[in-house]
Amino acid sequence: MTAFALDDPLDRGSGLPGPGRLLRSAADSVPPSGLVVLAIFSVQLGAGFAKELFAALPPSAVVFLRIAAGALIMGSLVRPRLKGLSWGDWAVGLGFGVTLAVMNLAFYEALSRLPMGIAVAVEFLGPLGVAVAASRRRIDLLWVGLAGAGVALLAPWGQSASVSWLGIGFAMVAGACWAGYILLSSAAGRRFPGTSGLSFAMIVSAVVVAPVGVASGGAELLRPELLLIGLGVGLLSSVIPYSLELQALRRMPKHVFGILMSLEPAVAALIGVLLLGEILHAQHWAAIICIVAASLGSTRRRRP
């Protein structure tokens, strides 16, 4: 849930200080496909650690820790410029931030009710829908049907106690917000220099999430160990993967980037098994494979 379809703003200046340029130089030595894979694992590791925090904090409080940490780090590296913004710039920036907040709140609520692989697979219907909606190919109807079959396999018709309708509903809301995030991030990339659009959106998102996060977390948010884990989740889930993806987008075609990102539900399921011990049924793996295959098909390079 990072820079899935974002126009690359690094073409107009990274806006990063000296350390940021050094990190970019180091990233240039890694193949772009490797950067995307590292970003995917970083995001899903962050989600896994966040889910472990649910034993001490409600999901909304964990979202607040994640977004606040990410906003603090991004804001210190890239200070968004507010002077001279047009009304259109403000609308895009605020909409981007609110969408980011709702997307994370809905996803973490889904994560608290579903295994990681299932939550990410359902949420992935958002970017899949954007890809299909932008296409005029008849074969894309096949990918829609394949994704629908995956959702049908995930639906708790009676025997799947590990899956809840409410969790699937939250994941679908997160997916819809992810679709909006893709469109708004592209607009922000055109209106804000460098990565300042993301920095602006994350600050707005932190402000939006703060009331519900602080109210639900209360004094537990001040525990040093939880703050430290929250900082790690913010780094793994936002700052590190976003930076890696932007570096990859500078050096690889977007359709290749999209194909690699299609592996994210499978990686989420793998992290869920290894980190959280979430053993999925055969039908759940079949559903994840259906959604990954639909995403791979929809991102195949189109003929000119």
UniProtKB/TrEMBL annotation:
The keyword Lipoprotein does not apply. Its main location: membrane. It is a multi-pass membrane protein. It comes from Nonomuraea phyllanthi. Keywords: Cell membrane, Membrane, Transmembrane, Transmembrane helix. This is EamA family transporter. Coiled coil: none annotated. GO terms for cellular component: plasma membrane. InterPro entries: AA-Vitamin_Transporters (IPR050638), EamA_dom (IPR000620), EmrE-like (IPR037185). It is found in: Cell membrane. Belongs to the EamA transporter family. Signal peptide: none annotated.
